[in-house]
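Internal QA ticket QA-208
Title: Verify multi-chain structure generation after dependency bump
Assignee: T.L.

Test input:
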Amino acid sequence: MTDLVVDHVNFAYRETPVLTDISLKLRPNSFNLLVGPSGSGKSTLLKLLSGLYPTFSDGTLTGKLTLGGYDIHDIVPYQRVTHIGYLFQNPTRQFVMRTPFEELRFSLENLQVRPEDIEKRITDAMKSVGMTAFMHHDLLNLSGGEKQKVALATVLAADSDYLLLDEPFANVDPVARLQLIDVIKAYQSQGKTILITDHDWSGYTDAIDDIFVMTDGRLHNTSSEERQQILAKLPNQPTIHTSLPNEKEGIITLESVTLKNGKRTLLSATTRLLPKEKRILITGPNGVGKSTLLSALVKLYPYGGTITYQQEDIAKRKIAKHVQDIALVFQNAEQQFVAMTVQEELTQAQALSHSPELWSDDTIVTVLTQLNLHDLRDHIVYQLSGGQQKKLQVLLMLIIGTPTLLFDEPLAGLDSASQQHLLDIIADFTTRQHQTVIMISHQLHAVTDWFDYHLKFDNQQLNYIGGAS
Amino acid sequence: MNPLIKFTTVMVIALELTFIKSVTLNVIVIGVSAFLYLFLKLHWRQWLWLFILPLLPGLGSWFSLMYFGTGDHEHMAWIMLSRVFAYLWLGGLFTLKLNDERDVFLATLEQKAKLSATFVYALVGVLNFMPAVSQEMKTIRVASQMRGQTLHIWQPQLYFKAILAAIRWSQNLAEGMVSHGFTEGAARTHLQVVTIKRRDWFLLIIILIAFQLLLLPNWY
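Actual output:
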């Protein structure tokens, strides 16, 4: 097997360094785990190793990534993929064709596999992930977990020596997770090398040979004691202090609400109420349907049962009217911009604010300064960094002052200081504007004492957890 | 019939129609197309489209020539009206079945017409993304409604944002293709090798000759 070597690699977007002086060599036929907080640069390193970066990024690279002595980037894709297989964090982004069969066929034809071998390789790969029944199904209708299995089948079929997996189990339910782990272990036993990034390594701790830790773009190879330490403590979850609600009425009520993704049930008939003027946290594993639930609340996703807003069936409310009472702060900030510059956005939001007296120019200056956005007023919103866009988007939605605000991972990708500032501002203004806040977040360290109530979404159930009030 | 052969036949006839000033010939083309449609088992909605779609441009040119034209304008008016119908009905023979024949058509373009695989698969990717586009438009509109601003279909902002989304998709598509080992200009193997039957070539020639013969009489 040819060696995959990373030699003093730096990677930066304009002036922002993402990776700093990274060197890495994978032992042949080893199982490697790459850990580190989100946003620390794990995905970037994997994309560089796969050869997709720097081509598909606007970052600059210094240092060398080589495969058997050749620069990874100089190897043509059809040869590179036979050596290095890469599984995207979001499988949807990987698909090019309409059905799993076409997807695998496309890949194998690119790799110039002989036509008489193609069908067998497709069948074998699909069989190993247990997806033969879905061979000719439309990819759009598969669940997140099923898509992930097909994506894995595609890289398995390519039979690469190195397999780079970026949080492969993020959207996968626990049962499928164990299946996929077995598939990957079996693949490694054929002499392949695995590099996997993950936040939760339960189920394959015994398979791990080497652990690399990424912090703020720096890579650290662990000693055997450190390894033991990391493996012993599963990612620790901070305790969230919330109580159980005892309100009899809610601003939003769910009555026997069900959610589905294709054929898969996300939420089985659930009746819950969400109290007014409270801060409610929703947590749960990836792919259980948290975002889908928020989409359903703003009528962007079909659901079963009845959802009411202030005792009114939302199915009967016009969407334009509905979203003036309950708005979603989208995961993708760009979707929510309506103007070109930061200043234009702010002016627009001020003009349409539900509480214009609260949002004087002075207030806005203060808040912008707190969020480190004050010097960017003339900038084009689409040219801001991901974190700046997110902060601006949250601020704009606060200015509008919609009575109920739904936040989908507003803290993801922000450093801890920004997270704290943003949470303070949200708390301050939503209290003054008597708003109800419903938030999905994985950044639990920042919010241990911030929420009133905590809804846990798991196993198709949505339940309040916390101490009695 | 192989869709590329069908496409060629339709294109050649349509090109010739452009230079032929004959109502009769246009009507014959429409008639033959209509006859073929009977075998294609169209949905009633497709029939409706076949009638409605050419109506506006057809009648538009008919009226302008009839009432504002000079010279042989009455004849020209009827020619234009029938020509628009002839184009559409002829084109429909190819496009209305394209959904079923899409894969064969693209494979033929790649393997027989030697069109660049980059172009062919970019087209495949785009066609596969189509269903997601309407959902994206909906999301864009609702997202801005949440900002208190309604984007109407005539507002450029809506399209600006749709274009941004399209740019993101195209980058994803390119990245996805490369991650699957797609290499511009490199050789590929093909699970299914497209063959164009000799019968198809024969039909193409017969149809085109028959059409040329139709041109001989001096039709109205």
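Spot checks passed. The mean pLDDT of chain B is 89.
Status: verified.
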